[in-house]
Amino acid sequence: ETGVTQTPRHLVMGMTNKKSLKCEQHLGHNAMYWYKQSAKKPLELMFVYSLEERVENNSVPSRFSPECPNSSHLFLHLHTLQPEDSALYLCASSQDLGSTTDTQYFGPGTRLTVL
Amino acid sequence: EDQVTQSPEALRLQEGESSSLNCSYTVSGLRGLFWYRQDPGKGPEFLFTLYSAGEEKEKERLKATLTKKESFLHITAPKPEDSATYLCAVLGGKLQFGAGTQVVVTP
Fold it and tell me: Phi/psi class of residue B29: alpha, beta or left (left: φ > 0; alpha: ψ in -120 to 50)?
């Protein structure tokens, strides 16, 4: 098992709902990431945090709102999603950001279905 | 723009039938190439990091190699438990993933 946990593992929501995804890392890392994984497509980087500060936002719609209250926790707040947002949402962490030896470790993901 | 292409998209092997997966890349200033394994419904699991052409890493039946334009993941005498999707990722300015190769090993 990895040191990155995600809850919930599965989520079904309507387009008008508001929900949050939670990620926690137990590895003492300083950088955390949100990815979206759709079938047959490469992982899409959504957000990057380093030492609790957002350092990257890859043109993600505002209906996705990240929050990083400390270096161990990362949230993704969801509201008024669209059916095309249905995907596997993965959280990852790494020791630091930008190091050439850095490796990202992933959580198990949250399978999100938007009806 | 950095690009990562994995081939084939899918691979079906008999148990014991060795094969190779390919990861071709174009990147400005390669800082690392990563291989991950992903099982259905789970997050990617780290396998290897390669940093320079000519480098090789091994783990059980898996061996990863790197040239200046591509990386190979060789699976020697695979077993059914090697069935998974194998992802390649390249670190240049940022980490970029390929779409993966889905491997199925039948008894």
Answer: left
